[in-house]
Design goal:
binds shikimate-3-phosphate; four-stranded mixed β-sheet; 25 strands; alpha/beta
Length: 438
Amino acid sequence: MSPLAMNMRFEPAAGLTGKLTPPADKSISHRAGLLGAMSSEPVRVENYLEAADTRSTLDAVRALGALVEGNDGQIVIRGTGLREAREPDGPIDVGNAGTLLRLLPGWLSAQQGRSFTLDGDDSIRRRPVDRIALPLRAMGAVIEATEGSFAPLTVHGERLLAVDHDLDVASAQVKSCLLLAALTADGTTTVTEPSRSRDHTERMLLRAGVEIEREGNRTSVVNADEIQLDAVAVPADPSSAAFMVTAGVLVPGSQLLLADVGVNWTRTGFLRILRRMRGIVLGDLEEESALLSPEEPTSDLDVAHGALEGTIVAPEEVPLAIDELPLVALLGCFAEGETVVTGAQELRVKESDRIAGVVEGLRGLGAEIEATADGFAVLGTGGLRGGTIDSLGDHRLAMMGAIAGLASREGVEVIGMDAAAISYPGFLSDLRTLGALG
Ligand code: S3P
């Protein structure tokens, strides 16, 4: 945890009401920063996320020779083009950003004759990179990772060849890394996932004029001379919105409107799980479609308090709700019956071990929750007592703890609340806007 670790108490709230627009989407912002740097023409980004993780991406692309102008989320990126990333003077610091750590080597692997070292904070150094290094090596990349699997890692640019990849685990980060490498590999690269994961990279590549196709869980990309992305408008992040949605559903008396939230089908698994739990969330969610769309649809979400029922989350739902699964556990504490998440072993290699963090954290607040090898099982008791929870420096656990406090009987102290700034710097002021902080 950072030396600035801040602890904060969240008292039971009387109801969250009003309207707000959650912060910009983190996944789409990372991709806009990277594809902007890879583009031949300047790319205007509206509503780029101003948070620690996505600042790391802009710092990285600057170190690679791109120019970034503007502020307050309205930026223009003047890129280097696909094959002209500059060799930086020293290691690229990805901070806490796993997405940056996994996507960037896809681009850098093909920068022939140049070498790049990526490093980050303590949490980044625990996150496996062999999942990208192995398939990139199959394309001809030369990558050295610490102990074979971890950052710091060094990428030596080489000529890449297109390969068919079959992923063992559905991961948008790994898929995106390989699709970025595909842009500069000779031929057509295909990536097949066991089930669908978020497809922001695919949508943005389609808009950038890349020959990209999806058939079922298989995506193929033909290499390109250049990419040209005109402008990107980043919607509000459904994963950040999910904290406010959860607070609205759990705290009696709540009624709130979250504006302009991204509702790409590959990101709304949480809302579908919540609706199955009988949670009241109205909105115009995108339908599942076999065809790849260039759009990132948005909708307002109306949320109200109501009683919940437990549910079973199946493995194929996991990638579509991966970052919201801690909130499913929290909702399960308040629901009638059991809530079980399966097939979510990936949670163990997020910013923290999120199975351990959620289970130990919520149990400390009075929850009846057990860890399983690939998820957790919660027995709803109609509420949560409260107590103290450690964020483990993980932004999503910090914010889950805060929401747990608002919905609890006795309040919750969150250790390391400052971690929220990684993805949601305005979290506390947004809670204040909704009247949740007394
Ligand atoms: C992300 C993909 C997911 C998610 C992460 C962001 C992305 O990771 O958990 O927060 O932007 O591609 P995995 O691909 O490892 O599941």
